[in-house]
TrEMBL record:
Presence of the UniProt keyword Hydrolase in the record: no
CDD domains the UniProt entry points to: AdoMet_MTases
Record-level Gene Ontology MF annotations: protein methyltransferase activity
Top-level enzyme category: transferase
Name of this chain's protein: Ribosomal protein L11 methyltransferase
Summary of the function given for this chain in its UniProt record: Methylates ribosomal protein L11.
Subcellular location: Cytoplasm
Organism encoding this protein: Anaerocolumna cellulosilytica
HAMAP family found in the cross-reference section: Methyltr_PrmA (MF_00735)
Lineage: Bacteria, Bacillati, Bacillota, Clostridia, Lachnospirales
Keyword terms of this UniProt record: Cytoplasm, Methyltransferase, Ribonucleoprotein, Ribosomal protein, S-adenosyl-L-methionine, Transferase
Homology family: Belongs to the methyltransferase superfamily. PrmA family.
UniProt xrefs under InterPro entries: Ribosomal_L11_MeTrfase_PrmA, Ribosomal_PrmA_MeTrfase, SAM-dependent_MTases_sf
Amino acids binding S-adenosyl-L-methionine: 168, 189, 211, 262
Biological processes per GO annotation: methylation
Amino acid sequence: MMCYEGWIMKWTKLTLSTMAEAVDLVSNMLSELGIEGIEIVDNVPITEQEKKAMFIDILPELDLDDKTAEISFYLGEEDSLQTITYQIQEGLRELSGYVDVGSGVIEVSETEDTDWINNWKAYFKPFRIDDTIVIKPTWEELASVGEKDIVIEIDPGTSFGTGSHETTKLCILGIKKHLKPGMHLLDVGCGSGILSIVGAKLGADRIFATDIDSNAVNSAYENAEVNKISTNILNIVSGDIISDNTLQQKAGMECYDMAVANILADVIIPLSAEIGQHIKPGGFFISSGIINTKKEQVKAAVLENGFQILEINEMGDWVSIVAQKPVRD
């Protein structure tokens, strides 16, 4: 979407009233509708452990009796407000069979704040994935870094992937556990490039990444440069590896020790039929972005396409499946 000099883009802000327990499911539903850059406000307290991991000192005062939540997002002038609100209401009706979605009221307002897409940066602070991996926004400074810390600097821009969401954390932990120095890595749906960068920092010496969004490719290359990841190691291409034969050939056949995909269940299911031809026998397929209500569907697809499941890891309402391509006799 272009914004020409001297012309102020008008954005429509939608704020959806729901319940804190439904936030993950509603967020996933919005993502499936193509809505990105959501803002969540609730009264769920963070733990002392999370407080330390996020490098913050002061916890906000919360009304713990208030279980409601608000999810805000923006639509451009070319988006159909009527269509989007109808799709959201249909999605809420479906989710109400699983969880209390609250009132589902959608408030609409208009803004001319052309920099709204960057305003969230005030809330993106350095945090730990585990005892050694630290995610740091490019515009923030770290007070201290441990000897064994691996620091990943990220500016996601308009792409998915700050590392803070459970799906990305699960994927990063899977990569750390199974990736060995010298391995070749395939990253499908790379977004900001965070998983490719983690792989490179952990010793992968060849990485091929793809994303259907050309803007994500630019963002991933910029983040790779900030993290001093050479283009000799990382190659990023725009396209859909599930359906694009040219991209499939460019990626190469049976040449990766590990493939990772932090996308959505409805994409991972068809991807599991394609990805195996790119993975070496004995190689790993780590998928994430799977809402727990679709775990069994993804599990069935992974097994049906010849993989052996090694682990199923869960965090909150999200699932990651670590599978392996069998070694030939």
